[in-house]
Amino acid sequence: MSEKGILVVVSGFAGSGKGTLMKTLVNQYKNYALSISATTRNPRPGEVDGREYFFKTTEEFEAMIAQEEFIEYAQYVNHYYGTPREYVESQLSAGKDVILEIEMQGALQVKEKFPETLLLFVTPPSVEILYKRLTGRGTEDKETIALRMARAKEEAKIMEQYDYLIVNDKLEECVITMHAIIQGEHARAFRKKELINTIREGFVCFSEGE
Ligand code: 5GP
Question: Does residue 103 line the site of ligand 1, with CB under 6 A?
């Protein structure tokens, strides 16, 4: 039987560059499936429904909540965001490592429901760089940027609840680090229950055959 995939949650401040990081990781290595969230925020220029997000009205989103279609959902800067359950479960069963790129409230909900989740937090090297990236992409107005900076300040208070902090300085290095962490995670003893059982059974047969 093939091993089940790992559920990997990646969070990071708005402007941390985690979106680009995740896309590069998924393109570069085969075994990842990137979950696509639903949201009630408007698409940014260039965003496509079903690719970056499933864009929903508030009514549609609330109906999905009622039908328990989400693994988790949260409100972030006046909008709903949520992770559809079906894709995540089917990809994990198929042995893929499934990546959820979600904010902290959602991340902590996932960890509570699925304690074996790996939590990664991506941060730029400094707050100055964060602010420059956020203003530099030119997709948000001043008020939204202020709200996102305020949210980032709050998020900084619970960064240590994550398993790993990844500094996003150079994209390529960061992708390699993230891949190495996830691969290392596969070797953790608590994820190797089948192998442990096989080895123990092997010992039983061995001593019986003596
Ligand atoms: P953005 O509007 O910049 O695309 O995303 C805003 C924040 O929402 C980011 O921190 C992003 O990681 C988070 N986010 C995206 N999808 C989800 C989701 O399905 N659930 C939760 N809890 N957060 C999400």
Answer: yes
| The token pair that represents 204 in the structure block | 């039983």
Q: Are 27 and 118 in contact (CB under 8 A)?
A: no
Residues 6+ apart with CB under 8 A from 79: 39, 40, 41
For residue 32, list its beta bridge partners. 97
Residue 195's SS3 state is helix
**Do 5 and 97 form a contact (C-beta atoms < 8 A)?**
yes
Report residue 195: phi and psi, to 5°: -65, -45
What order do you get walking across the sheet with 97-101 strand by strand? 32-34, 97-101, 7-12, 118-123, 164-167
**How far apart are the CA of 31 and the centre of ligand 1, in A?**
22
| Pair type for strands 97-101 and 32-34 | parallel
Per-residue pLDDT of 94-152, as tens digits, reads 999 999 999 999 999 999 999 999 999 999 999 999 898 888 877 788 898 899 899 89
Q: What is the DSSP letter of 168?
A: -
| Ligand 1 geometric centre to CA of 170 (Å) | 23
